[in-house]
Predict the structure of Ribosomal RNA large subunit methyltransferase H.
Amino acid sequence: MKIKLICFNKINKEFKEPYEFYINKIQKHCDLEIIEINEFDHGDIKSNMIKNEQNIHLRLKELKNFEIFLLDINAKQYSSKQIAKLLEENKNYKGGNICLIIGPSDGFSKEFRNLYQNKISFGLITLPYNLVRIVLLEQIYRGFKISKNQKYHK
């Protein structure tokens, strides 16, 4: 199984330790790649949004055989067990290739969100992008542990 995580900017140094911790744990279960895009943040929100979405589209052209999931605050909320089920169900779909996208600080336009039916929310709270990455990675790791009926701390 391959998982690609598309996100903006580099991880800040204060988040690096837990970030690398979960990357190392996940890589024992799948082929994980983090694709970092430099966020365009020069000008008005709408033009920034368009440029950032264009950068995502460029990356997605290379990922035709991947099931795409957007992290979207307004989407369906997933429990850890549902994420485990999502990972398990996608193992045999499109070769088990999943791409998760964490948006830029201005979020996604309605038009961009409408292009993708698969969306995941971790709730209605707003989190810094560094923390969202860590939460997502932790949930992916937890999902693998759940789907393999392996022990995981609670």
Remarks:
- The first helix runs from residue 16 to 26.
- The radius of gyration is 15 Å.
